[in-house]
Structure formats: structure tokens, C-alpha cells
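Help! Submission page says 'invalid entity' but I think these are all valid:
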Amino acid sequence: MLNAESPYLGQSPAVGLTLDHVSKKFRSLAVLSDVSLSVAMGEVVSLVGPNGSGKTTLLRIIIGTVTPDSGSVHVAGFDIRKHPAEVRASVSCVLGDEHGWYWRLSGRDNLIFFGRLRGLSSSDAATNADHYLEKYGLSKSATQRVGEYSTGMRGRLAIARAMLSTNPVIVLDEPTRGLDPGANDLFIESLAASSDRAILLVTHDLEIVARISTRSVLLSSGHVVAELPGDTDLAVLSDCLKAVSA
Amino acid sequence: MDIVGLLCGVSLFFFIARYTGARAESGRVDFFAFAVPGIAILRMQFGVLRSIASLDREQASGTLELLFAAPSRPSTLISGSAMYEVLRGAFLAVVVLAAGRWIFGARLTLGPRAWAGLVIGLIAATLFFVALSNATAGVLIAFKYGVPLANLLGLILPIVSGAYFSTTALPETLRHVTEIVPLTLAINVTRDAVLSAHFAWGESLFALLAASLCIPVSMYLVELAVRRSRRLGTLGQY
């Protein structure tokens, strides 16, 4: 029986991520206005929209580095205002650039560090790091300093970092930027294999959207303007995006 | 490189004292012996500078935002990072004392009679510098001016802490303020221990208490700074 303090009150545990009427202003600029969306466990929802539409701000609200002005955010059943640490423990992310590393540490050491930061034990962090380095073709460069990695290698490492721990929710901001076609395919396979997680993907790559998404959400000027089913044709997606970008 | 730099710093004071023939404490102690405990304790200040410089780089590279996206409290992460650098500075402080005594011949007592005061002084100084690092980190996170502030503190602390000269040389108003600064208390406790093997329970406990109180206050400042940055959306900005 649920009690009044249960974080799952009013939430189905099957819903990984819910945003209800979220708004955010920076100074006088409304970046997000009354945005509502949800991502169920096992779903891959793509968030698309023109530059400056508020996609990255939305992701930052979910991972807890930006506070919404109004509205509610629930991640794995936890309210971001009441249980911020639990929310941060439930979501991992790719923030879309190849920075965010300790450049003098190796790729492996970076992954172990961030795994430990997310609560993995030393041995689990090391095992998972080795697994994902192998999976994303970085085993040979595992002991190289991240500062010596190419853009694409750092992109793959960022995806490995997001997948490293068993967080139920993953948010990804342009994760395929700089990836070669082979790495792109590996990434899509990883998403397809993560059927036990709720994934929110921000991307401009409509081919990935068409291939992998169970739903697409179009964001424009901080508003959700449309939601499209996963089997939407690539051409239709492109037309919709062009229409909101105009 | 740290050890070489440290020895250069100590030798500077050695030669100044030798050249000027200066004495301290109304002539009872030679200036070099008086200054060595202060030089030692202020080594920890470099730990603060390194910690803030590192944080500045993390902020610029986006790593800081990822650190704060982790479940751990930001103040815990910042304190942990500062603790490593300051403890490293504490180790070097002991090296300074040893070098002052056994390389440069300062009349210091480093045997068991000095250990109680020395340990209390070093602990109090460590706590103070960790708190200072936290507070400076808060300014860095909130206003992006942590490095200039750390550099400024690096210039102010030697003047107000009694590290190189007694605080009795300062104007009266300033003296009353500096005498309750935990760093000044920590240096006094350390100096009493190594110059005269003297251990004052009251002063030592007060130094420890004052320094300990700085920690939760500084951690709260970090949490406030992060909260502000989250609200303004500047955590990921540089």
C-alpha cells in the first residue's frame, strides 16, 4: 500500500521520466514554456527542434543542473524538488560536447572515476569500463590520455560513460556528433538493447530518429508543438522540422 | 619541483634573516626561527590555489557540470577535492619545518615535546584552508571570480596571519580581528610548540574549534552558490 510519502505516489513505476508544465526563463527570455512530456521505460523518445528551441535546457533540467521555474519533473518516480539526489542517481547523460573529461587521465581511468561517482563499486566500475571500452572499440586506446583522443573517440567515450551505470533513465544531447558510421550503428544497437531504460534523445539526425525512436517530440521556441509516432516517415519528419524552423 | 620550490622559499627567509640580523619577540628569538612555522603553515595555501585552479579548469571544460549532475552533494565533492590538496600542503609544511631545523639550522624543537602543539596547529590550519578553499570555490561557481580571489587571499593572508611577523606589529583594530582568525591561532599554536615546546590547552582547543566551525559554514556557502547557479542556469557556463 502506498503511503503519502511514497515517491511513486501518482506515478506508475513504468514511467521513467515525466515533465509536467515545466517552464524556465533566463533573465527575461522564456526558454521553455509549459512543456509536458513523458518517457516510459523501454521507450526511446527523440526530441527534435531548431537551434535555440530549449532542448538542451530541458535536458539540463532533467539531470538537475538547471532548476525549473515552475512545473514538476519526476525521474524514476522521484520528484526533482523533493528528492534531487535520488533523481541525479537515476539519470545518466551525454551532454553533447566532447569536453567534460579529465584530460590527463586515460579513457579507462575517466570511466572508472565517473562510475565511482555514480555509486558503482571499484570492481564494478572497472568491469563496466572495460566492457564498454570493448563495445565501443576503444580498448586499444583505453590507457591513452583522453587529451590525445580524437573528437569521435571522445564522443564514443561519452556514450560509454552514459551507459556505464544501471541508471533507469538516460538523456543524450547530440550523442552521434563526430561519430563515424560504424560507431553510429553501435550506438543505435546500444539504444535498441536498452529496453529496460527510458531514453530521451536530442538529435538533429533524422535518420536515427526514424530508425530508433518510439516517438518524436518537436520543440520550437520552448513549446512542444507536435508529437509524432515512431513509424513516421523520414520525409514527413523533415518537413515538420522545416516547418517549425521557419 | 614542489620540494625545490619549498627549499627556495625557506632559503629566501634564511638569507634575509642572516643579512638583516633581525630578531623577533623582543629579541628573544632570531627572525628565521620565528618565521619558519609561518612559512610551513602557509604552504597549505598553495593547496587552496591548486584546488581553485583545478576547479576553474573543470568549470571551463564542462567537467564541473557533470560532477554536479552526480548524486553526491556538491559541497562534499568540493571539500573532498580541497582536502587532498590541503593535506598535501600539510605534508609539505612538515617538510618545511624539518628543512628549517636540519638544513638551515633554525633553533626549533621538533621532538616529542612539540608534537601535541604541532599536530593541533597543523589540524587547525588544515581545517581552515579546506574551509577557505570551499568558500573560494563558492565564489568561483557563483560569480566565476574564484582564481583572482584565491590570488588576492594569497597576498592578504601572510600579512594578517602572523606568519612572518607578530600581529602586534599591525594597527590595533586589525590586530583584534586577526587574533581570532583560526589561521593566526593555528600558527601561534604551532610556533609555541616548535620554538619553546609549549602547549597551551586553551588556545589549542580554541584554534581547533574555530577552524572546525569554518567547515560547515563554507560547505553551506558552496551549496548556496550551486543552488544559485542552477537557478540562473550558469553551472555549465564559464
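Support: the input was valid. A stray whitespace character was the problem, and the output above is from the cleaned input. Chain A is about 35% helix and 25% strand.
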